[in-house]
Specification:
This protein has about 300 residues and is an alpha/beta fold. It is about 40% helix and about 20% strand. The longest helix has 24 residues. The protein is globular and about 70 Å long. This is LysR family transcriptional regulator.
Length: about 300
C-alpha cells in the first residue's frame, strides 16, 4: 500500500510568513488570533516537519535562515492560492463597499496591518480609504460621504464616538538643521482648526517662546517636506519618521506637548460598516496606548 507523506498545515505556513515579514511572534499572534506560546509551538512543529531551522532569534527580532528564505518565497504564493480556493467555494457572510476616512498621519502607523487583517477575514468587502484632515472628515461623515472615520479627538463628535488610543505628541525637526534654535520659531503646521496646531501654539505661548507659522499643509507629507528642507519644525507622532527627521524635546529648548486621542466615529449602520468598526476597535485594544471601548 502506498502511503502519501503528510502535507504542510497552511496555518503553520501563515504564522511563519507573518513572523518572517514582521520579525515578531507577538504581532504574528495578534494577526492569527492565537497566543504567543501557541505560535511559537507552531514554528517548532513546522521546523520539525521540515527537518530544518527556519528562524533565528536576534536582538532586533527574528531573521530567516537560508532554508527559511527559500520557504518564504514559496509559502506566499501557496497561501494566496489556498485562500483563493476557499474564498471561491465559501459564501461570504458579509459583502459590500465601505468608505473609511482617516488623517494621513495615522495611515502608515496603524492601518496597513488593521486593513490587511480585515481583508483576510472579509475577502468580499471592498474598502475605500479617504485621507483628509479630521475636521473635513467629520464634515464628510455628516454629509453621508463616509461610513466611518478615524479623527483626532478635540474636533467635536467625541460624545458619540469611540476613543481608541491615547499617546504623546512630539515636536519633529530636521536632523541636519538647527531651525529650532531660531527666534521667532518657524512652524510648519496644518490648518488653524487642527488640534495638533492648537496644542503646539498653546505650549509655545505658555513657555513664552515667540513663533510664527511660515508654512501650512493639510497633509503630513507636506509639513515634513518643509521640515526636511530645514525651513521649520512641526508636530506629530514619534514613529515612523523618515530619514532626516528627529524628535525634538526639552533639551532642544522646546516645551512638552500634551497627549492626544484618536477616536472613531460611525455614520453608517450597514453590516459591513459595523464589521469594520468592530475590527478597528478590537485592533486598537491590542496596541500600546490602546483604550477599552468607552464611547458611543
Amino acid at each position: 500500500m502506498l502511503f502519501l507523506p503528510p502535507g504542510l498545515d497552511p496555518d503553520l505556513l501563515r504564522s511563519f510568513v507573518l513572523i518572517a515579514e514582521g520579525g515578531s511572534v507577538t504581532r504574528a499572534a495578534q494577526r492569527v488570533g492565537r497566543t504567543q506560546s501557541a505560535v511559537s509551538m507552531q514554528m517548532r512543529r513546522l521546523e520539525d516537519a521540515l527537518g530544518q531551522p527556519l528562524l533565528l532569534r536576534g536582538r532586533g527580532g527574528f531573521s530567516l535562515t537560508p532554508h527559511g528564505s527559500w520557504l518564504l518565497d514559496r509559502a506566499r504564493p501557496l497561501l494566496a492560492m489556498h485562500d483563493e480556493i476557499l474564498a471561491n467555494f465559501r459564501s461570504p457572510d458579509i459583502t459590500g463597499h465601505v468608505r473609511l476616512g482617516t488623517p494621513d498621519d495615522y495611515v502608515l502607523v496603524w492601518l496597513p496591518e488593521i486593513l490587511a487583517r480585515f481583508a483576510e477575514t472579509h475577502p468580499a468587502v471592498e474598502m475605500e480609504v479617504i485621507c483628509a484632515p479630521s475636521s473635513e472628515l467629520l464634515q464628510r461623515l455628516e454629509h453621508g460621504e463616509l461610513d466611518l472615520t478615524l479623527f483626532s479627538a478635540g474636533n467635536g463628535r467625541e460624545q458619540d464616538s469611540t476613543i481608541l488610543w491615547r499617546g504623546p505628541l512630539y515636536w519633529v525637526g530636521s536632523s541636519a538643521h538647527a531651525v529650532h534654535r531660531m527666534s521667532p520659531l518657524r512652524l510648519s503646521l496644518a490648518q488653524p482648526s487642527c488640534v495638533w496646531r492648537k496644542a503646539a501654539t498653546t505650549a509655545l505661548e505658555e513657555a513664552g517662546i515667540p513663533w510664527r507659522v511660515t508654512y501650512s499643509s493639510s497633509s503630513q507629507m507636506g509639513t515634513h517636506a518643509v521640515v526636511l528642507a530645514g525651513l521649520a519644525i512641526t508636530v506629530g507622532l514619534a514613529a515612523p519618521l523618515q530619514a532626516g527627521l528627529r524628535v525634538l524635546d526639552e533639551s532642544d529648548g522646546l516645551p512638552p506637548l500634551p497627549e492626544f486621542e484618536i477616536a472613531l466615529a460611525a455614520g453608517s449602520d450597514t453590516p459591513v460598516a459595523r464589521a469594520l468598526e468592530e475590527h478597528i476597535i478590537g485592533s486598537f485594544r491590542h496596541e500600546p496606548g490602546g483604550l477599552p471601548d468607552r464611547g458611543g
